Amino acid sequence: MSTDQTNELNSLKNLSEDLMLLFDEASSFFFADVVLKCESFSIPAHKSILSARSPVFSAMFKTEMRESRDKSVDIDDMDISVLRIMLMYIYTGNTDGLTMSNAHDLLFAADKYQLIALKKACSEYMKRNAEVQNIMKLLMLGDLYDRD
Predict the structure, then answer these.
(1) How many other CB atoms sit within 10 Å of the CB of residue 127?
(2) What is the DSSP letter of 97?
(3) CA 106 – CA 119 distance, rounded (Å)
(4) Which residues have CB under 8 Å from 26's CB, separation 6+?
């Protein structure tokens, strides 16, 4: 790897770490301009970051939808653990939290919020970890969300 490529990777890693600081609930409270409500949890977030990464959030905040006026978004179709992993991806591009037990729920979330790269990461993870026991479920998920 060349020095320029190493510097670029380090720069991207630093950017990801800096954006993670915004996602950290302790510091995000001061700068957040929207709250995501899931189960009994409220997660402060940033409309600009959510909108830059997801066309669905972008449309939500650009229009006069209730979420834009109330500065809160109710997310009632996923578990809090899946929402946190999705937000980690939105803020940092990191998909380290993928497991076979959450990849299918995350695939649903990525599809719903049009997070194409996260959807691809979930699909690739599930393909790499396909086994006889889960192949039927993976085929059904593929038919619903990602033909690849």
Answers:
(1) 12
(2) T
(3) 8
(4) none
Best CA proximity match to 110, nearest among 99, 95, 130, 131: 95
E runs forming strands in 46-121: 72-74
Using an 8 Å Cβ cutoff, are 123 and 45 in contact? no
Tell whether pTM > 0.90. Answer: no
Instruction: Work out the widest C-alpha separation in the chain, in whole angstroms.
Output: 49
> Could you read off the pLDDT of 10-23 as tens digits, one per residue?
777 777 777 777 77
CB of 98 closer than 8 Å to CB of 121: yes
Q: Quick: pLDDT tens for 47-105.
A: 999 999 999 999 999 887 777 678 899 999 999 999 999 999 999 998 888 888 898 89
Structure tokens at 148: 């690849």
Single-letter code of the amino acid located at 27: S
Tokens of 37: 């409500």
